[in-house]
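Appendix B. Chain record.
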Amino acid sequence: MQTIRPLSYDGSALMVGGRYSQNSLGDAANSDADGHRINATWISKFADDTFGIALGYSHINGAIQENQVGLYEPRQAIGDNWRPGVPAGTWYSDGIKALRRTGYAERDGLMATLQFRPSNAWTSTLDLFYTQAEQEDTANQFEVHIGDYNGGFGRLQVTNPVINGNGTFTGGTANNVYPLVRGMYNHREDEIKAAGWLNEFNVGKVEVVADVGYSKANRDELNLENNTQLYPMPQLDSVNLAFRSGGFSQLDPGRDYSNPASLYLNNTIYGSGYGKVPSVEDELKTFKLVGTFPAGGWFSGVDAGLNYADRQKAKTQPEGNINLGAQGPTAIAQDLQYTPVNLGFAGIGYIPSWNVPAAVERYMDFRPVDNLAYLIPKAWTVDEEITTGFVRADIDTEWGGVPVTGNIGVQIQHVDQSSSANFWDATQPAGSEISPLTPGSTYTDVLPSMNLAFSLAHEQMLRVALAKQTARPRVDQMRASLEFGVNTATGRPGGSGGNPELEPWRANAFDISYEKYFGTKAYVAAAYFYKDLENYIYTQTRDDYDFSNLLVDYVPPPGTQPPQAIGDFTQPMNGEGGSLQGLELTASIPFELFSSALTGFGVVASASFFDSSIEILDPESASSVGSDPIALPGLSDRVYNWTLYYERNGFEARINQRRRSDFIGEIGNFNGNRSLRYVVGENITDAQLSYSFSSGSLAGMTLLLQGSNLTNEAYQTYAGSKDRPLEFLEWGRTITVGLNYRF
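Structure tokens predicted for this chain:
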């Protein structure tokens, strides 16, 4: 990505714009359903066009509005009398929640580009960027545990159970349960500072590029929860359940939960509350030096250079219980109450919503810490230094009368990565349980590549590429965090953590494409790729991990088994072998090719088809994707995209649809870790209308109307099969009106 270059811009300009948007779900709690955006850009040149400046500002405020129903994981086949009233062997979920999430996301961004070109031999460009963002949202939530746990007030009783042909519990009445009304609050602040200084020189016939970059990102979050139940305790309930695929599951309680005076902050069946204070700092320093030299024969030039990147990312996450204050169980005062939210989409009706952080401050005690055994591994730092040297020759020749362009080259990439963290070693004496970890790894990859483009007759193009490719692991996968313990009944150790010795995805790649152009108006293309994956990354459990170093001082408690040296360890690992391939068909067709009466109309469309021989296991996500092998996450078998448009005389109309088949997605769970889900394929439709004035007093003005997610497409996940739904979310459709003006 490159910012605008003011010295390449024709003249000076001032551009301003504004947007106003409205979400179809409407206002709720203390949050509006509307949003806005304003932006301005100024570009100018000075000193006989030797100095240029571009300044930009953008402010965005967007509404967060969401309806959701979600079921607990794991889905499991229950045993006899595990859930009274439900037959043994039935696939069952232990709970369900419905919520209305409300809030806002706000961002301010500033950019500046300063460009200096005193002569044709030197151009210097300084890019500066700053952004600050804030997001706040609250999930106002009704939740019921149906897993035979209600705080110790008797057993669950399910009547009139409905079980489908796949042996899955899909409805009935859960009796003797104790629902909660919860407020789940999240506040996040992000700040990014970035600068880049690019210098381009001509030294004789040699072009030299030197580029220095720096960026730093900080994120601070606050996650709070309030738990309330009907008081005095207990006030048990019967909830009618109907679990649905393709729609909101229903949970219809027998009692009324709309009166905030009846719901008390209390030591509920889930405690009174829990909070987290995550913080992330990510710093990146880069340097690039490239020389372009003249060449002869097949080659028009040769590039040789060096890239260097030094990155450090650190995370901390203090946590703790949010305990009741000295006043004990209490209703939340009226001055902290917001407008009740309507959960009628899930069969519940209205529930209260309130100011969660104010309730914590007034009625509760929250003192997050980071030195408890289960919190120690959540703080870590990852460092990585990547040095890449490369040489590339640009091809510009003819083979057998066919013009050929492209390049051939090689990169040599050296990586030095390490991580530091602490772990809780329960084998050590009291006061010495915290031990440091500083593992890491170094490796070097040689990455040759070739790209060729053959200009064939009749406006046809054939492109062929061969390359050895790598893709870095996620930084959190390389953390040194470690948790382990010993099963005192068997003596077998077990643990989990990151992998600072993780190596990247590696593939031998082949790409070929054919393109046919019809002047400058239309084209059709077909592209095929094949990747022979030598190495890829997934989470697995090893059953041969040697814990000897961690068990040196371990003394088994009296009456327990002595420790074994070998046990199970779950972490990101490198898999070996497999392939990934795909075919993409693309066309851009203006309809005037068929008739002048259709001038201005056209379509741009693509269809992509993917396949992989790789199957992986992810024990951390077994509750949703199962314990059998699964396909690569994120990969849909089919993806379609089309845009129908009309462009003429300043008027533009577009409608776009994006479709993809089911896939395995990677989402954040309650613990802030990534986990896998089966995701139902999406079908998103957007549209836009605009008109640009080209003459008269309004010349330079553009009016627009946009609609996003016009059909209110939902996000749906499931566990293994679609008759076992997990989440169903809708974000509504958004309508936006806007104006741009260029002076």
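Further analysis of this model is presented in Appendix C.
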